[in-house]
Amino acid sequence: xxxxxxxxxxxxxxxxxxxxxxxxxxxxxxxxxxxxxxxxxxxxxxxxxxxxxxxxxxxxxxxxxxxxxxxxxxxxxxxxxxxxxxxxxxxxxxxxxxxxxxxxxxxxxxxxxxxxxxxxxxxxxxxxxx
Length: 130
Description:
Elements: H1 15-18, H2 28-34, H3 49-75, H4 84-96, H5 102-117, H6 119-124
């Protein structure tokens, strides 16, 4: 039994879920959850000391995560995903277009989709060499 298109979640849709034409409605949640905050010295004078400690703790936590991700990606930059329709399209192109590379095309499509959906996080890794 397949879920209806309207109630279908993106979970398990692989590349199909990443490639969307519309921009996400809000990236505010992303900013709050994942983006390294500015140092506490740049905060406003009205902030309570506890807010500064929370910000510093969050900043340190994000820095640790960032550094771990960079090391992990340097060791293994590959990702895996499952998408039957995307695989079918890419394999069709591989068989019908000379010099077509499934890996290069998939990489380009995923990078565009991820950069569009998570621009603030993308910027964090913009100057990293992997």
